[in-house]
Structures are given as C-alpha cells and as structure tokens.
Amino acid sequence: MDDHLNHRALAMLRAVAAGRAEVTTSRQPDLRVDGLLCCDQAAARELARAGLLRPAERDAPGSWVPAELTPAGRAALA
Fold it and tell me: Where is this region: Disordered (predicted)?
C-alpha cells in the first residue's frame, strides 16, 4: 500500500509517528488525532489493515489506546 499513499494517509502516519494519535482496539479500528476523530476512517482502517499502524498497547475491545507505527509504517514515511 505504501506505493499508493496519498497526502491524507501520509499525514495520518506522521500524526501517529509524532505521538498525536489514538486507535480503538477493535477489528475495524477508528483513529483520533489530537483528540478529534479522523475525517477519513476508511483510510485509517486501510492503514491498519495494510500493517502500517497498530495499537501501542492491548486493552479491552473498543478501548482507545495510543497508536504506533509498525516497521512498515516507518518505512513508508522514510
């Protein structure tokens, strides 16, 4: 997927890298940046399915936890 990342997806990954994002611990994770829901949840879920971001910790399903980049996510930003 990293060959096809648009500006919005890259901005989401940069927010995760900066420690400004949270995701839900669910099969279809939602993303918040700076406490606000991301405007493109479909893109956020695609980034998670592509293995570019993930929850930084485990918690009860549906809980909000910090998001982190995976090695693939860091490579996509490099």
Answer: 58-78
Give the span between the Cα atoms of 15 and 77, in whole angstroms: 11
pTM value is 0.90
The secondary structure of 21-32 as a DSSP string is EEEESSSS--EE
From CA 4, how far away is CA 50, in angstroms rounded? 11
Question: Each residue of 25-64: pLDDT tens digit?
Answer: 998 999 999 999 998 999 999 999 999 999 999 888 889 9
Q: Which residues contact 44 (CB under 8 A, 6 or more apart)?
A: 12, 23, 29, 30, 31, 38
In this model, does residue 3 exceed pLDDT 70? no
Distances from the Cα of 75 to the Cα of 7, 24, 38, 61, angstroms: 16, 23, 22, 28
